[in-house]
From TrEMBL:
SMART domains per the UniProt record, alphabetical: OmpH (SM00935)
InterPro entries: Chaperone_Skp, Skp_dom_sf
Gene3D superfamilies attached to this UniProt entry: Skp domain
GO biological process: protein stabilization
Any single GO CC term annotated in Swiss-Prot or TrEMBL for this entry: cytosol
Coiled-coil intervals: 48-117
Full protein name: Periplasmic chaperone for outer membrane proteins Skp
One function term, GO molecular function aspect: unfolded protein binding
One Pfam family it belongs to: OmpH
Annotated signal sequence range: 1-24
Lineage: Bacteria, Pseudomonadati, Aquificota, Aquificia, Desulfurobacteriales
PANTHER family tied to this protein: CHAPERONE PROTEIN SKP
Family to which the UniProt record says this protein belongs: Belongs to the Skp family.
Keywords annotated in UniProt: Coiled coil, Signal
Species, as recorded: Desulfurobacterium atlanticum
Length: 172
């Protein structure tokens, strides 16, 4: 009886394994490259321009402040100042340096937050396009190439260009 149960159990396990193998061969995992979509879509290019504009504005403010700091340093090297005036200039320099550091930190934080916000919006919109495309084309699964841990894949399962085309039409 034990031999029969062991044989029956083995037969069931092997047959289940065979069924799963057959199903797995009919199953395909499609993928997209989100970074490519972000970089090449009109929405991504617009977000990049907005971000670069904010970065340039922040850099301009920082450069102006750095120039003021350098001018103060130059003034301080002059032997013409009395101790009282020199002390005032040193305090002014320290205040400008603190202002510069604070502005730099605030600018970096603002840029990081804006980048995160703009990217999140694009990713959210791309996910909607992918979900609709997957449903319309009866695809079993779509993953993101970089986040999905894909090391190598058959390019025939890459739907990035198709999604990019659909997503780009929405941005116009």
């Amino acid at each position: 009886m034990r031999k029969f149960l062991a044989a029956a159990t083995c037969a069931v396990v092997f047959s289940l394994g065979f069924v799963n193998t057959v199903r797995a061969e009919n199953f395909a995992v499609y993928y997209i490259d989100m970074q490519k979509i972000i970089n090449e879509s009109p929405q991504g290019k617009k977000a990049k321009q907005e971000l670069e504009s904010k970065i340039k504005a922040a850099e301009s403010k920082l450069k102006k402040l750095a120039d003021e700091i350098n001018a103060l340093k130059k003034e301080l090297s002059s032997p013409l100042f009395n101790d009282s005036t020199k002390k005032k200039k040193e305090n002014e320099l320290q205040m400008k340096i603190m202002e510069f550091r604070q502005l730099k930190q605030e600018s970096e934080q603002m840029v990081a937050e804006l980048q995160k916000k703009l990217t999140a919006k694009i990713v959210e919109d791309v996910f909607k396009v992918v979900a609709k495309y997957r449903k319309e084309h009866h695809l079993p699964m779509v993953v993101e190439r970089n986040e999905g841990g894909i090391i190598a894949a058959d390019p025939k399962y890459d739907i990035t260009d198709k999604i990019l085309k659909v997503f780009s039409k929405q941005g116009k």
